């Protein structure tokens, strides 16, 4: 029984960007992760050992967000690679990284990059 699991609007303060100021001052970011996995064993057993641990997924995102990068594509790619390495049972994975209030010379709510793996 395949299921879609979504971790939505995880909030981080990080230092990603191409401008020196961004890597010094930092900015607010939001991360969304969704994945498809076999939920049959967990739905039958009610045991965490039979599921993908959401806390562990969150901690992977947190760890990767703490590493400075110039590009959101690089951050999202690292998150995907790390999750796939630790959870090979995930069949499909999507990671969206959003920079809130990006410095684009005008008003913008956010800019986002979404990668699938």
TrEMBL record:
First-level EC class: lyase
Domain of life: Bacteria
Catalytic activity: 7,8-dihydroneopterin = 6-hydroxymethyl-7,8-dihydropterin + glycolaldehyde
Occurrences of domain Dihydroneopterin aldolase/epimerase (ranges): 5-117
EC numbers, comma separated: 4.1.2.25
Gene Ontology molecular function: any one: dihydroneopterin aldolase activity
A single GO BP: folic acid biosynthetic process
Family as reported in the entry's similarity comment: Belongs to the DHNA family.
Name this polypeptide is given: 7,8-dihydroneopterin aldolase
Classification lineage: Bacteria, Pseudomonadati, Bacteroidota, Bacteroidia, Marinilabiliales
């Amino acid at each position: 029984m395949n299921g879609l699991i979504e971790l939505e609007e995880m909030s981080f303060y990080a230092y990603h960007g191409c401008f020196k100021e961004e890597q010094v001052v930092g900015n607010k970011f939001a991360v969304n992760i969704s994945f498809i996995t076999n939920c049959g064993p967990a739905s039958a057993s009610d045991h965490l050992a039979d599921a993908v641990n959401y806390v562990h997924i969150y901690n992977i995102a947190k760890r990767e967000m703490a590493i400075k990068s110039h590009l959101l594509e690089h951050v999202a790619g690292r998150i995907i690679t790390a999750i796939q390495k630790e959870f090979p049972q995930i069949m499909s994975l999507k990671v969206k990284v959003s920079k809130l209030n990006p410095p684009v010379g005008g008003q913008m709510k956010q800019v986002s990059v979404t990668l699938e793996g």
